[in-house]
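Practice problem: Lysine-2,3-aminomutase-like protein
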Amino acid sequence: MPDGTPPRVTRTLTSPRALQAAGLLPAAALPGAEAVAARYSIAVTPAVAALIDPADPADPIARQYIPDAAELLTAPHELDDPTADGPFTPVKGVVHRYPDRALLKPLLACPVYCRFCFRREAVGPDGGLLTEPELEAALDWFAATPAVREAILTGGDPLMLSPRRLAAMLGRLAALPQIEILRIHSRVPVAAPGLVTPALAAALETAKPLYLCVHANHAREFTAEAAGALARLARAGVVLLGQSVLLRGVNDSAEALEALFRAMLRARVKPYYLHQLDPAPGTARFAVPVEEGRALLRALRGRVTGLAWPTYVQERPAGGGKVPLGPEWDAKAG
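Answer key — structure tokens:
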């Protein structure tokens, strides 16, 4: 535009050239981004695009979503399947790593595609939507596995499903006598809050307790629109939890984490997990050493209410599940 102001984004941007046209990708970065797009999916919603400051080369929102040529560099410690979903998949769409809970992945599409995602080899606009027979087989597996008390819908982003399909899925799971808790992991309330319609909120009104884990990594993601979407979900009886990934250049300071956790609480979201980065290919630029993460949390102790305190966790190798990382405290210290 003549005054240098980037054009207003009105639809999801899914290619490097669309990002460049919107003023979100420098021309010099286009060849590298095109190479990344040949391997990994790209999507930046209007809500996310509006948060990015194109004049700031270190913008923490852009860093999460704008492709970078560094994604094509695989470090020696990085793994194709860092959470080892494969060995724990009894039927397509199900991951059963813990005795009492299991994941259901009904689709692999997301409103946005994070540049650090541990499933980014699999997710994309094609959606990976389970067919009706595949979904039936997955639901039959839950019905036949009485040890599983918690069903966790993830993906992909389950809130990308139609309200009708989502309500039917949750209803089937809630009707199983052994299922006590339902959980959904989603970026939708912050990345595409307009999708949280009254119909979607109504679809989440279930006979069993339902917890929604909202993935957000920076305080700016909690806009007025996101807060409105989350309030709508809270009114439907959904318990809101927050999960974040500790990311270099996004939230790797005590100030950034404090702002993030306070923003969550203001939006009715209880900080639940702070994840150590999973070593997916091409994500080394986001890595923060564990000891640095522990030091950041120590710096927050006493600065924020206990309500703002998440559990700092890391996935063990070979699908061993999450372990808490601390920090450790000396109860006798003054």
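Discussion: Residues 182 and 239 are 10 Å apart (CA to CA). Students who identified this feature from the tokens alone can consider the problem solved.
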